[in-house]
Specification:
CATH superfamily of the largest domain: MFS general substrate transporter like domains
Shape: globular
Radius of gyration: 21 Å
Distance between the termini: 21 Å
Strand content: under 5%
CATH architecture of the largest domain: Up-down Bundle
Number of strands: 0
Oligomer: single chain
CATH class of the largest domain: Mainly Alpha
Helix content: over 70%
Length: 404
């Protein structure tokens, strides 16, 4: 049964994902056409920003453990909105990079604080299911926001682009207001937690290895937004608009099927089983995408759609499995710190993924697809020993671990 805190978490997710969807489809053109930055400088600034974001996620997650997850999440949601507002004022590379660093840092910290808030409000056995519903909500919000961003792209004016940024900032403020309605939690530090070394997650080798392997699995993130649009236009005869069709297919599938996929995950054992399947399916997806090279429009389109179907199946399986491991193998009194560290996989994938993926796929072609695909089952299977070692460490200090 869905509780009021769960509904509020979903509403907060919907609020900021609508703004993000509009931001994602318009930001590149805003920064190049309105701000006047060269595309290479936009890419460099965003790479630096997400590198900073990957570093500050852990200390901001620890702040949630010390000062309270709800208050930290509200503060960082407001900070994200303010950073988006700052983009409206920047004129030049350095101010843009500073605003992007503030944006990426606030986003990384907000993700960690919200995960800590969820862990404090939702029983352990219900977290993966709720995260699946939140992911479905996220994709629905992104699709709606992307449609609103499409209106701005169609208008093509600086005013339309600026309106999108105002909308995104307001969405994060709405997110903060919704989070403020949630119950306040006693911070672990105030309840006698956070004992021992500072930033203990950095010394927790099994958990750190899980986070690293998860970052490898997240190299799939730049496929739909960057690699496939370039692959379609440069290596296949398929029309360029097929990239948007594949994006819609992905978001619709996650919105409809992420919750049923996540029901199979009830503990560490089932999470590892689903992750192993996701690695194999992702390898198959990459092999299918490779077959589209040098094909004419219709055969290439059919092959690419099949590859995208396999890719989204692997994505939903990987998401469900990694959620269970990230929560189930983290100490209860350091949830923000540990979630901040595990979440660096996303920022690492956003930072390094575009370079790695485009170099492999566009530079090497079919061998690059097979190499990328081959990394996935290797990383997924390697999570088994790491997860079992992390589970032994949790049980050694008397913390329960859902076997499932």
């Amino acid at each position: 049964m869905t509780t009021r805190p769960q509904r509020s978490l979903a509403l907060a997710q919907l609020a900021n994902s609508v703004g993000d969807g509009a931001f994602y489809v318009t930001s590149a053109l805003y920064f190049t056409r309105v701000v006047g930055l060269a595309p290479a400088r936009v890419g460099l600034g965003l790479t630096l920003a997400w590198a900073v974001g990957s570093v500050v996620g852990v200390p901001l997650g620890r702040l949630a453990d010390r000062r309270g997850a709800r208050g930290t999440a509200v503060l960082l949601a407001c900070a994200t909105g303010a950073a988006i507002g700052a983009f409206l004022l920047v004129r030049g590379f350095v101010p843009f990079t500073l605003a992007a660093c503030a944006y990426a840092s606030a986003q990384s910290g907000l993700a960690a604080a919200r995960q800590a808030l969820l862990a404090g409000l939702v029983p352990a056995g219900q977290r993966t299911g709720l995260l699946a519903r939140l992911q479905s909500t996220l994709n629905g919000g992104l699709a709606l926001g992307a449609a609103l961003g499409g209106l701005a792209l169609n208008a093509g004016t600086s005013g339309a682009y600026r309106a999108v940024f105002v909308l995104d900032a307001m969405c994060f403020l709405a997110c903060a207001l919704v989070l403020l309605r949630l119950p306040a939690l006693v911070p672990p530090a105030a309840a006698g937690g956070l004992r021992g070394q500072r930033f203990a997650v950095l010394r927790d080798r099994p958990y750190a290895l899980l986070a690293l392997l998860n970052a490898v699995l997240l190299l799939r993130l730049p496929l739909l937004s960057l690699a496939l649009p370039l692959w379609i236009t440069e290596r296949t005869g398929a029309p360029a608009w097929l990239a948007s069709v594949l994006f819609v297919l992905n978001t619709a599938a996650v919105t409809l099927f992420q919750v049923p996929v996540a029901r199979a995950v009830t503990g560490v054992t089932t999470a590892l089983r689903v992750l192993r399947r996701s690695g194999v399916v992702m390898l198959a997806s990459c092999a299918v995408f490779a077959l589209s090279a040098n094909r004419s429009a219709l055969p290439a389109a059919v092959i690419l759609v099949l590859g995208a179907v396999l890719q989204v199946i692997a994505e939903m399986q990987q998401s469900a499995g990694s959620w269970q491991l990230s929560f189930g193998l983290a100490p209860a009194d350091r949830m923000g710190e540990y979630q901040g560290f595990f979440g660096t996989g996303v920022t690492v994938a956003r930072t390094m993924g575009p370079l790695v993926v485009t170099s492999l796929l566009l530079g090497w072609g079919t061998p690059g697809w097979l190499l990328l695909g081959g990394l996935m089952p290797v990383a997924a299977w390697a999570m088994g020993p790491a997860a079992r070692a992390a589970g032994r460490a949790r049980r050694a200090v008397g913390e329960p671990v859902l076997a499932g």
